[in-house]
Amino acid sequence: MSITVLHPGMLTTIQDQGRIGYQQFGVPVSGTVDPRSAAVANILAGNEESEAVLECTVMGPQLRFDEPAVIAIAGADLGPTLDGVPMDNYRAVRVRAGQVLRFTGPRCGCRAFIAIAGGLDVPEVMGSRSTYMKAKIGGFKGRKLEKEDVLNFRAPGTEPKTLEARSIAPEFRARTEYTLRVVLGPQDDAFTAAGIETFLTGVYAVTAEFDRMGCRLEGPEIAHETSGDIISDGIAFGAIQVPSSGQPIIMLADRQTTGGYTKIANVISADFRVLGQLKSGDRVRFEKISLPAAQEALLAQRASLRLLRHVLDG
Amino acid sequence: MDEVRFLNAGDTAVTVEFGNEISEAINGRIRSFNIALQDSGIAGIVETVPTYRSLMVHYDPGVIRYASLEKKLKGLLSGLDKVRIPPSEVLEIPVLYGGEEGPDLPFVAEHSGRSADEVVAIHSAPEYLIYMLGFTPGFTYLGGMDETIATPRLKTPRVKIPAGSVGIAGAQTGVYPIDSPGGWQLIGRTPVRMYAPEREKPILPEAGQYIRFYPIDRAEYDRIAEQEAAGTYVCKRHSREEGAK
User: Fold this and answer.
1) B11 to A294: CB separation less than 8 angstroms, yes or no
2) Which of the residues A231, A262, A305 would you substitute to probe the B interface, choosing the one with the greatest number of B C-beta atoms within 10 Å?
3) Contact B197 A258 (CB under 8 A)
4) Nearest Cβ partner of A24 from B12, B50, B62?
5) How far apart are CA A78 and CA A112, in angstroms?
């Protein structure tokens, strides 16, 4: 069971839910930048939600399926076609042997996730199949996909009976301005009251510097009490670092485990599905919510995944 | 007890901060707290990340909500002085100093006004505390280097430094765990693999342990490198005596 890469696209890597338990050793978590969409793609394809998927960035790959497969794509709409015929995102689709999946170009969002029923057959490194390119570990030989790579996938245990029913409305839609909800901290006390106000009322634009590690924004300068430097501490997914320049950087899946810049706030987990889809030129606002409200939102989102699985698999 | 601060780091992590300086005492309390936390069996802890002055605790709010977690963490803190903490371990790391492996040793010697042999003796004397790991997999932030051999970074960083290289940057010393670019003054190289992704325990050093470097010759370097390649090398280690420097 294999897939041949005819063209790798801009940046296509194998990712799962990340490498847990090794941050204390300096190993970044990695994993999908939009875990919600990856989980939805997996559930539609009949996989465990934590199964490894292909994360495709802006310009998707061209893939030839050497054997029949069932796939589902979620997240960004990068214009998928199967042998030239447009195919839906957020729908399980049967692919015949020899068919080619191509992407015509981005219509909305930044990252699409391709789940393949049965899952990608690559070895786990430190308990995860996620690619961490800097240390050359995980995924396919520790790197992004390249032309003529052959990816193996496992045969699904049982194929879903009713493929037609396995679809939902796309969850991600393009907006003129995105709102990311945040919980203040851990270093909100390093900023002036006016600085916090600037952060919560300003509109920030995503710059061209965005990758799997972080997303650099540009907008009204956020004022510190003294400086943007601290003695290094831990960095969570979605942490919003503000160095002395006053311009925020949101830390993503491949972030280093520790860092020495003040972190004004953290994007809530329930909004990673928006955060993971931001790309150059997008406009963003931040909205403060309480920690209990953020945790409620995350649990509600998890419940919706369980419901989706229940509806599809009975 | 200094006031310990609980800082929210999003909705799935909290930073427990023990102070605002780099000190062995603060780092020691973080180690004790981390051990107590691991032993506590509190459900919902995902992983912990010790740093210079804090412990980041990642948790699953589906298992434990923040309010309940904070209460339990505070309970652990109040009993911390009664927790029996095993002594720290010292990892003994062999280093081939100078030559091709340590091309900057002559510069470090000149800069500090010492002979190369004296630099080696000074560098291999202390037990260096591993305050934390970060930057790259297996990179240790060490404390305790003798200031007399402190040397500024290279003006132009090297494009590729081989894994195992031992360097000095300002008053810091450390080992490059993977091939990477960098500007540290290289004084030697260890054949010990600090980071080996295929190994059952991929990363050798742990925060809270100590490292002592000891000089070896080329024959021993080659012998250990061979054992590392075969996966049979066992790094020497011993328990650290209380109050040792």
Assistant:
1) yes
2) A231
3) no
4) B50
5) 7
- Residues pairing with B187 in the sheet: none
Can you tell me the mean pLDDT for B151-163?
92
Mapped onto helix, strand or coil, the DSSP state of residue B122 is helix
Domains of chain B by residue range: 5-82, 89-239
Domains present along chain A, CATH in parentheses: 2-165 (no CATH), 178-301 (2.40.100.10)
Query: Does B206 reach chain A within 8 Å, measured CB to CB?
Result: yes
What would the pLDDT profile of A55-100 be if each residue is shown by its tens digit? 999 999 999 999 999 999 999 999 999 999 999 999 999 999 999 9
Task: Single out the residue of A259, A292, A286, A249 nearest to residue A271, CA to CA.
Answer: A286
Q: What is the CATH number of domain B89-239?
A: 2.40.100.10
Express each pLDDT in B159-187 by its tens digit.
Answer: 999 999 999 999 999 999 999 888 999 99
Average pLDDT over chain B, rounded to an integer: 94
Could you tell me the CA-to-CA distances from A264 to A114, A120, A136, A235, B181 in Å, in that order?
A: 34, 38, 31, 12, 30
In chain B, residues 113-152 whose CB comes closer than 8 Å to chain A: 132-139, 141
CB contacts, 8 Å: A258 with chain B: 49, 51, 132, 134-135
Q: Which residues on chain A are in Cβ contact (under 8 Å) with B194?
A: none
pLDDT digits (tens, 9 = 90+) for B183-192: 999 999 999 9
The fold adopted by the segment(s) B5-82 is: Gyrase A; domain 2 (3.30.1360)
Binary contact (B50, A135; C-beta < 8 A): no
pLDDT band at residue B85 under the 50/70/90 scheme: confident
For the stretch A64-74, pLDDT in tens is 999 999 999 99
Cα–Cα distance measured from residue A110 to residue A108, given in angstroms and rounded to the nearest whole number: 7
